[in-house]
Specification:
Helix content is 58%, strand content 16%. The chain is α+β, with helices and mostly antiparallel strands and 183 residues long. A hairpin with a 5-residue loop joins strand 1 and strand 2.
Length: 183
């Protein structure tokens, strides 16, 4: 599993958290990605340093692991490579075992009643490290829908991938519509 360095830096910061904060962050991110809570609610509950970097990195790591159907052994190896203690790796994998199926179903498709996208706003930001130095670029993306706004962060490479997937989807929809009108 290839992980951008800015995500690795955020994941490394998980090792600095106490056990209660670690559990809150991991469970909170799974709940946020599954739609059980919002990012804003999660951020209000957390009282940790570097929470933006940690939460953003964990969201990317968890969503990619679920989307790519990465096995728990590989996830555990990644976390061990980041020098997380064995009890933290076990705690993470226990949450993953319980919550990943719900998250996979959310990632697999849209729920009925998901709003239509009305507008997109984005902003290039630079994640900050411990010393205040720039760690790397990331995009803050906000999708304005007719229901509620959706907010997420991604790397420039992930944004390029998202744009190409949207272009491909648009092409497929146009092709389908043209074939329907001919028939």
């Amino acid at each position: 599993m290839e992980i951008p360095s800015v995500v690795l830096d955020g994941l490394c910061s998980l090792g600095e958290l106490d056990n209660t904060s670690f559990a809150s962050v991991v469970d909170g991110v799974y709940d946020t990605l599954s739609g059980k809570t919002t990012t804003q609610e999660l951020m209000k509950r957390l009282e940790i340093n570097q929470k933006d970097a940690i939460v953003d990195s964990l969201m990317l790591f968890i969503s990619e692991a679920c989307r790519r159907n990465v096995n728990p052994g590989t996830i555990g190896e990644v976390l061990q490579d980041l020098q997380l203690p064995p009890e933290r790796v076990s705690r993470f994998l226990a949450s993953h075992k319980v919550k990943h199926l719900t998250l996979k179903s959310v990632l697999a498709g849209t729920k009925p009643g998901t709003g239509s996208i009305l507008d997109v706003r984005w902003k290039l930001e630079y994640a900050r490290g411990d010393g205040g130095s720039a760690v790397g670029p990331r995009y803050s993306i906000q999708l304005i829908t007719d229901k509620e706004p959706l907010h997420f962060y991604c790397s420039p490479a992930q944004l390029d991938d998202l744009v190409s997937q949207l272009q491909s989807a648009t092409f497929s929809i146009d092709k389908f519509i043209n074939n329907q009108s001919i028939a």
